[in-house]
Prior knowledge:
Radius of gyration: 19 Å
Structural class: mainly alpha
Amino acid sequence: MRDTDQAESGHSQITAPQRELLDQLLDKWSLQVLDRLCGRPCRFNDLRRAIPAVTQKSLTATLRRLERNGMVERVVVNTRPVAVEYRITALGTTLQDLIDALLKWSAANLPDVDRARERFDADQD
Length: 125
């Protein structure tokens, strides 16, 4: 049997760098942060209030990861006292349709997923 290459199979391989990026974008808090920032720039505490379950440490780590990946920018606002605001970048904005689609899909399909989980769990007993 001969090997089927990527073009023949019609499926692409997920590379290690792609997997790392997707893991960071689809982690526990990133989608919520990106969704919130696509609406408008926010200060750190605005994000904490908008996502009440996130801890300060987790939000800080998420924002740093998103900033490192070019999705979010940290802007010092020249006010008294000086404030920091987080904004979506042009690159981050390209994710908005994907985020909306994932959130819409999850809302529409969660009942089916719940039923599948119940069936699976019942079969495990």
